[in-house]
Amino acid sequence: MVKKVVNTSGKRKTSVARATVQKGKGLVRINKIPVELYEPEIARWKIMEPINIADKHMDKLNVDVSVSGGGFMSQASAVRTSIAKGLLEFTGDPSLKIAFLDHDRSLLVSDSRRKEAKKPLGRGARSKRQKSYR
Question: Could you give the count of Cα atoms lying within 13 Å of 125 in the half-sphere of its Cβ?
């Protein structure tokens, strides 16, 4: 069974991407900007990975993504995860899931790593102030 509209999310560090997949003409927009015009280029390559893998499904779908928080690379990782999850849920194609997992597990699994908490007497999570006995 194919659903009409699918909403998915992807996370990386502090970036959160929310993707909406629906029937359409193959348009992919990130924060209302077409993916072909998305800058920087290295982030665009990362975002295009799930789109290139699911190429045969893309001409019948529209994907709208809103992303916020973090830097441009963590946003790109969050966007690609949300797009891949949305495509998989919308199409329900088991061979697509295998293709995504063969390429990269992070396409379907959000990165759960977070910044470690800062401790007292230090400048960060692990570093401590140096002692001088002289």
Answer: 4
84 SS3 class: helix
The answer to whether residue 85 sits within a structural domain is: yes
Its pTM surpasses 0.90: no
Asked whether residue 66 is assigned to any structural domain, the reply reads yes
Q: Which two tokens stand for residue 78?
A: 């969050």
DSSP 32: T
CA-to-CA separations, 33 to 7, 112, 134, in angstroms, rounded = 19, 27, 60
Asked, for residue 125, whether it belongs to a domain, the answer is no
pLDDT tens profile 54-66: 888 888 899 999 9
pLDDT tens digits, 4-50: 899 999 999 999 999 999 999 989 999 999 999 998 999 999 999 99
Token code pair at residue 44: 């665009």
d(CA 81, CA 9): 7
Euclidean distance between CA atoms 75 and 70, whole angstroms: 6
User: How many domains, the chain?
Assistant: 1
**Phi/psi of residue 56, nearest 5 degrees:** -70, -20
